[in-house]
Design brief:
The protein folds into two domains: 385 residues, Alpha-Beta Barrel (TIM Barrel); 37 residues, no CATH class. It is built from 22 helices and 19 strands. By secondary structure, the protein is an alpha/beta fold. α3 packs parallel to α5, α3 packs across α20 and α10 packs parallel to α11.
Length: 527
């Protein structure tokens, strides 16, 4: 059994010539013919080289691994019960799913409150994030959840002003923060500013705290999509040269006369901008956290990627020592920006495995009475059942689930529907619900009443799309929790799910389905 698709993918716009007869271990056509023009990834690499490393077309897509990992969250099932209720009265008129509370409170001072246990992790300087930020920021604010401004936003903004190596003006960053704050309601949710090596050198987080009123910042060790720094494509020579001047790694060298000539001739059409990898040490990490708190940060988060177990242990232990408010652990396999395609498929610890380790390490510290940060699990989550399972797997430490591709998809669809409404060109499968945003978006009446008619008309359909998607997740999660008689997130436990395979049980420590409740079963049968 092969877990991986090799040498052809929609992500790289490649395919095999003999689609029905492919070598499972090399991914090549069983018969590779002299004379083929090169439709597969090997062939395309023969004439476009390193361009084929990355999913395409850049800036219009988000991407996730095609790898069929041996274990995923479908290998667990959510248990239900016909007995009792936890968190509300044991009364059939009270224990109904609309009464399930989805509020999540966390942070070292328990001062952060979300209406739903969802955080959008770092969406940074990629075009797909920038082009959909309006919907993401406003939709998140309305839903009362969290949104993280990812790496390189300041450095990538041509309008940013940098003096003495530090940012003094950042229009794009300011716009992103203001959008969220203008639509935030009742103090729920938060906007977070993340930083990588380049952002730290530029003083981005200090600027966001002192000049833009940001309370929460996040240190970034990495993500699940790749184990190197962030990358983007640049189609403009002048911008590539600006980024090179600002200290980024830009390939090929946009100041080289031969490169400039080749670009102008059309030999290649995009430059690559790469970020540097960090060099983590305990001393530097603790020092940086203190610097941020001294600069005025109320909350400090850490996001780590799908690195080896020792690095996860470092993340958990360092977060404990620094009293980090939220640690996000991202499993391998997905990305919202530009990540090397083979790396995305073949690098890192997958979600269930790394989340199980995160629980194990965190629980070990808790058993010794040490401070443990709130956890967020990320890595391919899209629907309410996965949210429930992740919270249960990491209970009681997991307070949020990180989701990026799902929310982005909802915002993009909302934006596209709004555009089609304005053009009078709704597709039939949407038009059957109506031809206005009040008719198409099922939450419109609720939002119009809450915001008022004038404010509602300012609301972009991308934001309505994200808000409506979240409302669906909320009700679905309430129903699952009600079925398990858990009426608030704090009551979800590891006993609320069961493993469907012995492998999942072995990796996670979650009981195999037929072994669940053994002691209670024997007691009932013997009574």
């Amino acid at each position: 059994m092969s877990f991986t698709t090799i040498n052809r993918s929609a992500a790289t716009l490649t395919k095999n010539r003999t689609e029905g007869s492919i070598s499972p271990f090399s991914g090549m056509c069983v018969t590779c013919v002299d004379g083929c023009v090169g439709m597969c990834e090997i062939g395309k690499s023969a004439y476009r080289g390193s361009e084929v490393i990355y999913p395409q077309p850049f800036g219009l897509i988000t991407t996730a691994s095609e790898k069929d990992y041996p274990i995923d969250y479908s290998h667990f099932t959510i248990l239900g019960t016909a007995v009792g209720a936890v968190g509300v009265a044991q009364d059939s008129d009270v224990a109904i799913f609309p009464n399930v509370s989805l509020e999540s409170t966390f942070g070292s001072d328990k001062g952060i409150k979300f209406r739903l246990p969802i955080m959008i992790p770092g969406l940074g300087s990629t075009n797909v994030a920038k082009n959909n930020w309006e919907g993401l920021a406003i939709g998140t604010a309305l839903a009362g959840t969290g949104l993280t401004i990812g790496e390189n936003v300041v450095g990538m903004d041509p309008e940013s002003e940098i003096k003495g190596g530090k940012v003094v003006k950042a229009p794009d960053l300011s716009w992103r923060i203001k959008l969220f704050k203008d639509w935030q309601r009742d103090g729920y949710g938060m906007i977070v500013v993340q930083a990588n090596v380049e952002d730290t050198r530029l003083g981005v987080q200090e600027y966001a705290i002192s000049e833009l009123g940001v309370e929460t910042v996040e240190l970034k060790w990495g993500q699940g999509a790749k184990d190197i720094g962030g990358e983007v494509k640049i189609k403009n020579l002048e911008k590539a040269q600006l980024l090179y001047k600002r200290g980024y790694v830009v390939l090929p060298d946009p100041t080289n006369p031969d490169v400039i000539k080749a670009f102008e001739h059309g030999t290649f059409k995009e430059f690559e901008r790469h970020s540097r990898v960090g060099m983590v040490t305990e001393e530097d990490f603790l020092k940086r956290v203190e610097e941020l708190r001294a600069a005025g940060a109320k909350y400090v988060f850490l996001k780590t990627g799908a690195y080896r177990p020792a690095d996860l242990a470092r993340a958990v232990k360092f977060s404990s020592k620094a009293k980090i408010d939220l640690l996000t652990v991202d499993g391998a396999g997905g990305g919202t920006g530009m990540s090397p395609w083979r790396m995305m498929n073949e690098w890192g610890i997958p979600g269930v495995e790394i989340h199980s380790l995160a629980y194990k390490y965190t629980h070990q510290l808790a058993q010794k009475g040490e401070y443990v940060p709130a956890l967020a699990f990320a890595g391919g989550f899209t629907f309410e059942d996965q949210i429930y399972k992740a919270i249960a797997l990491g209970a009681p430490y997991v307070k949020l689930v990180g989701m990026a591709r799902g929310p982005l998809a909802a915002a993009m669809v909302g934006k596209t529907i709004g555009k089609r409404i304005n053009e009078g060109q709704l597709p039939v499968y949407v038009e059957r619900f109506g031809d206005s945003k009040d008719e198409v978006f099922v939450t419109s009446a609720e939002l119009r009443k809450e915001l008022g008619p004038e404010k509602f008309e300012e609301l972009p359909t991308a934001a309505i799309g994200l808000y409506t998607y979240y409302e669906r997740l909320a009700q679905g999660l309430q129903q699952l929790m009600c079925g398990n008689r858990k009426f608030a997130l704090e009551y979800i436990s590891r006993e609320d799910i069961a493993s469907l395979t012995k492998e999942a049980a072995d990796v996670s420590g979650i009981t195999y389905i037929t072994d669940v409740d053994q002691k209670e079963v024997e007691k009932i049968l013997a009574s």
